[in-house]
Amino acid sequence: MNSDGGVTGRPIGAATGERQGSSGAVLETRGLARSFTQGSETIHVLRGVDLSIAPGEIVALLGPSGSGKSTMLQAIGLLEGGFEGSIRIAGEEAARLDAAGRTAVRRDQLGFVYQFHHLLADFNAIENVILPQLVHGAERPAAEARATRLLSVLGLGHRLTHRPSQLSGGEQQRVAVARALANRPALILADEPTGNLDEHTADVVLAEFLRLVREEGSAALIATHNERLAKRMDRVVRLHEGQLQ
Fold first, then answer.
1. 67 pLDDT band (50/70/90 cuts)?
2. For residue 13, is pLDDT > 60?
3. Which residues does residue 88 pair with via DSSP β-bridges, in sequence order?
4. Pick the residue with more confidence: 144 or 96?
5. Which residues, 6 or more positions from 14, have their beta carbon under 8 angstroms from its beta carbon?
6. Those residues with Cβ within 8 angstroms of residue 158's Cβ, 6 or more apart along the chain or in another chain
7. Distance (Å, whole) CA 191 – CA 74
């Protein structure tokens, strides 16, 4: 356990984008770049980002608001086009896939947690975690059992039938975490997952998030501007002027 209370079961690497070679990496980007044109000006948000994440490793992507963290996660999550460079997810070159291929990678390999929960308002907590599994091809009984286990581990065993509007902010984020892990993704991408919570609730939710991710064996890339929270993860990389430090 580190000084901030985070459990670090794997060695903490240096604060650079590289930790290990490409062999076995769950995520590997090479030369990842993104620019935008505003009038006559070209704005370079990402400038050739190289990053490797090992299976089961939890990495904090640290940087102030506007530094390009969300843009980087959108690229890795195959949510937006216009990027240059290589993105390999679980050994597969994903950057060049067509729309159907990108959808398959997102469905089979990735889980997402955002600052706002984005739960389906008309469905209760357990249904929000069951539905992604059904889309993935799971049978209803198995999906319900897994949803119940994930939510119970997160302390929501007594809130399974409550809709998002009946849950607190921290509870909503716990459901979002369970949903992200429902299909056993190789990699979780989280964009300021506790940024909408008060400090105490953020601490509790992050601790539960990290514990469950480690228990499930997924890797994670978690964007945050909070140095204190970043220290609870296995490794910190900093995005500065479009490059990792």
1. confident
2. no
3. 28, 93
4. 144
5. 235
6. none
7. 10
Dig out the tokens for 71 from the structure.
């843009």
The angle subtended at Cα 69 by Cα 151 and Cα 198, nearest 5°, is 50
Give the strand pairing for 58-62 and 235-240.
Answer: parallel
**pLDDT tens-digit readout, 147-191:** 999 999 999 999 999 999 999 999 999 999 999 999 999 999 999
Strand pairing of 243-244 and 235-240? antiparallel
Provide the terminal-to-terminal Cα distance of the chain, rounded to the nearest Å.
25
Alpha helical stretches, state H, 26-86: 69-76
**Rounded to whole angstroms, how far apart are CA atoms 171 and 125?**
9
Write out the two tokens for 189. 């991408």
Give me the architecture of the 57-79+108-244 domain, per CATH: 3-Layer(aba) Sandwich (3.40)
**Backbone phi and psi for residue 81, each to the nearest 5 degrees, phi listed first:** -90, -170
Give the Cβ contact number of residue 149 at 10 Å: 13
pLDDT reading at 127 higher than 90: yes
**Per-residue pLDDT at 17:** 47
Q: Model pTM?
A: 0.85
**Residue 235 near residue 57 (C-beta atoms within 8 A):** yes
